[in-house]
């Protein structure tokens, strides 16, 4: 009986408490509603439509406001950037769609980058701002360098270092091709000092020069560290020139080599044992740790992906890195980079300088690779086709395929693909090392 009385008492107390809370919240709600009602001004139909019109993109395009802050709320935007600039950038993104779909120019990256660029140029929504989903993606994986590192893990899982292990001296060709990076660094500094419209800092110049390595993730990684405002232009230039390898490289290769040199047949590569392939990424990582720790984020991720692949013990993890993981991150990376294609960041004189310097960097890398191939052919006991030096840029495996095609056009029985893969994969390592050098100096 006492238990029932106690439970009844608790029930009564709980009911009274709930009633008090409900009454209090209702009174507060009524007070807030009354306050809002008193501050709300009645509008007729015309005023309502006028208010709606001012919230449209059409109004924003036609009525720019001088000094209005951009999505990041840091720097003011010009009237041009708010109106015509945005329209121009949307057409630039449509051009990227055309190149990716019709011309098959790096569609995996150019399509997400282009779409991200369209979203970044939508007025009012501020999708590329810190609270927009593109800005969140950028802060989550590009600003801190995470996405490029995960891409390198996938690249490592897809890469076969066998040709490089079988013929280690081809690493010199990959190293020589990185000359375009440092040559362009000097060129960017000279361009800044000799022109009034282009002004690159040393950090900007270092970020631009990495385009010469023809490695998109590396370019994004170093640009996010040294020149985040130039990230969009640098990424678009890097991936565009990677896609243009079959157009840019063959004329340079033919100009610097004779017909006899292009016909040179190389000795068949030896068989590489599994143990060598397992030890290679570990050895490479140890050397990187001892000599250039700043390069270990990229090189370490590359070695990790390759180590899992070559171990043969975790095929499921290796397959995930080669497919699902790298595909998901590629989508996020492309959209995040596209957020930097906003008109106020891209439509500046420096963008033209980036495009020109990027072409110079890429061409220099090809030239020095071929010239090193010619020199090695003169000094080596076994014949070396100078064409494989052009594969030293790290556009894997496209550069190696272009080398093979140029050699095959000269002599249909000459197969250079596997020989070109040696300098090609060493170019991936070389560009990551070059990025580490630039970060250690300029960061």
Describe this protein's structure:
This protein is mostly helical and 443 residues long. It has a domain at 163-321 and 350-442. 72% of the residues lie in helices and 1% in strands. It has 23 helices and 2 strands. A two-stranded antiparallel sheet has the order 1-2. Strand 1 and strand 2 form a beta hairpin. Helix 8 packs antiparallel against helix 13 (216-226), helix 13 runs parallel beside helix 23 and helix 14 (231-243) packs across helix 21 (349-379). The protein starts with a helix and ends with a helix. Residues 16-28 and 30-38 have low confidence and may be disordered.
Shape: elongated
Number of strands: 2
Number of DSSP helical runs: 23
Find the structural class using helix and strand composition. Answer: mainly alpha
Main sheet: which strands, in order across?
1-2
Q: What is the percent of helical residues?
A: over 70%
Span between N and C termini?
Answer: 79 Å
Radius of gyration: 29 Å
Oligomeric state:
single chain
Strand content: under 5%
Low-confidence stretches: 16-28, 30-38
> What's the mean pLDDT score?
86
Query: Order of helices and strands, N to C?
Result: HHHEEHHHHHHHHHHHHHHHHHHHH
Largest sheet: number of strands, sense, barrel closure: 2 strands, antiparallel
Briefly summarize what is shown.
The chain is an all-alpha fold. The protein is built from 23 helices and two strands.
Keywords:
443 residues; mainly alpha; two-stranded antiparallel ribbon; 2 strands
């Amino acid at each position: 009986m006492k238990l029932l009385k106690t439970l009844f008492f608790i029930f009564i107390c709980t009911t009274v408490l709930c009633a008090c809370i409900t009454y209090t919240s209702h009174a507060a709600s009524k007070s807030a509603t009354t306050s809002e009602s008193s501050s709300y001004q009645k509008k007729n139909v015309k005023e309502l439509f006028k208010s709606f019109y001012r919230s449209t993109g059409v109004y924003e395009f036609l009525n720019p406001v001088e000094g209005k802050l951009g999505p990041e709320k840091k720097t003011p935007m010009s009237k041009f950037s708010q109106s015509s600039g945005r329209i121009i950038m949307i057409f630039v993104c449509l051009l990227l769609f055309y190149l990716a779909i019709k011309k098959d120019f790096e569609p995996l990256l150019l399509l997400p980058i282009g779409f991200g660029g369209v979203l970044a140029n939508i007025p009012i929504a501020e999708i590329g701002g810190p609270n927009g989903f593109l800005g969140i993606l950028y802060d989550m994986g590009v600003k801190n360098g995470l996405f490029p590192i995960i891409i390198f893990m996938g690249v490592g899982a897809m890469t076969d270092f066998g040709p490089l292990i079988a013929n280690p001296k081809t690493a010199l060709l990959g190293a020589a091709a990185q000359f375009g990076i440092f040559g362009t660094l000097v060129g960017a500094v000279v361009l800044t000092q000799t022109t009034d419209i282009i002004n690159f800092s040393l950090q900007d110049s270092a970020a631009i020069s990495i385009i010469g390595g023809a490695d998109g993730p590396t370019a994004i990684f170093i640009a996010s560290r040294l020149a985040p405002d130039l990230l969009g232009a640098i990424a678009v230039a890097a991936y565009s020139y990677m896609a243009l390898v079959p157009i840019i490289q063959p004329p340079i290769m033919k100009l610097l080599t004779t017909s006899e040199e292009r016909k040179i047949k190389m000795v068949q590569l030896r068989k590489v044992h599994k143990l060598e392939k397992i030890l290679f990424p570990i050895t490479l990582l140890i050397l990187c740790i001892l000599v250039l720790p700043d390069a270990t984020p990229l090189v370490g991720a590359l070695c990790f992906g390759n180590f899992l692949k070559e171990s043969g013990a975790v095929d499921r993890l290796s397959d995930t890195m080669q497919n699902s993981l790298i595909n998901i991150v590629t989508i996020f990376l492309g959209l995040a980079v596209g957020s930097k294609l906003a008109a106020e960041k891209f439509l500046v004189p420096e963008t033209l300088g980036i495009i020109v310097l990027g072409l110079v960097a890429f061409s220099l890398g090809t030239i020095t690779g071929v010239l090193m191939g010619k020199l090695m052919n003169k000094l080596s006991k076994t014949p070396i086709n100078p064409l494989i030096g052009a594969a030293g840029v790290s556009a894997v495996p496209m550069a190696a395929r272009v080398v093979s095609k140029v050699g095959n056009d000269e002599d249909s029985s000459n197969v250079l693909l596997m020989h070109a893969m040696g300098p090609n994969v060493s170019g991936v390592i070389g560009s990551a090392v070059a990025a580490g050098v630039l970060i250690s100096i300029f960061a």
